[in-house]
Amino acid sequence: MGAAGVFFRVSYGATLAYTAAGLVGPAAGMAVAHLSTAWAAVLLGYALAEYRIHTGSELAADEAAARTPPSRSEGQQLTLVHCVAMSSLTTLFLAARVVWLVFFPFYGEDSQFLLVLELSVLIWWILYFWAIIINHYLLHQAVVSNEFMKRLLCYYLASCAPSIFCGLLDFWFFAYYFGLEMMAMAAFFGYILAVNARRKDIMPRDQ
């Protein structure tokens, strides 16, 4: 993914935000613009992983391919289906809330920071659920361990405490505190997506 490709993909978000603001309202435009920052972070993480794979400094895809068994047992397959189904159901509810916030905004002009805050939290959880599945079942913990993912969740929950100090300074600082965490998770998600894409490219040659 070249620099020009990243630029054009990111520009789609700005176009959608402008369109949403004109067709639905300013709050919808703000919501789409904020979601576009998550999209841009995913592209950044993806591009970073591609660069590191190209330079040979990222070998997680090769390790994941080596750890991938030829086939899964029936129990492993059922566990995978169950996890994907539960994550899909959870994601559906969270995504429905995101769509509702975009098309049916109900926060007033004085509380737009709550819109940014809620979107940030929703997107973080959606990406976290799928990052767990990709990292564990597809990459076989080649990028990070399951223990790291647990610590990441603990860190996110614990980060609610220092965010209060941001809220004492300004409500927008409070909202974008979680916005930055959303972008960090989005970049991480894009990174593991690129590693998994590379793993899929390697697998046919290894089999």
Provide the residue-averaged pLDDT. Answer: 81
Report the radius of gyration as a whole number of Å: 19 Å
Poorly predicted runs: none
* Percent of residues in beta strands: under 5%
**Which secondary-structure class do the elements indicate?**
mainly alpha
Q: Helical segment tally?
A: 8
> What sort of overall outline do the alpha carbons produce when their principal axes are compared?
elongated
Counting DSSP E segments of at least 2 residues, the number of strands comes to: 0
Largest sheet: none
The percentage helix is over 70%
Between the first and last Cα atoms, what is the distance in angstroms?
Answer: 27 Å
What is the string of SSEs from the N terminus onward?
A: HHHHHHHH
Describe this structure in words.
The chain is mainly α and about 210 residues long. Helices cover about 85% and strands about 0% of the residues. The longest helix is centred in the C-terminal third of the chain and has 36 residues, at about 170-205. The radius of gyration is 19 Å and the shape is elongated. Keywords: Membrane, Transmembrane, Transmembrane helix.
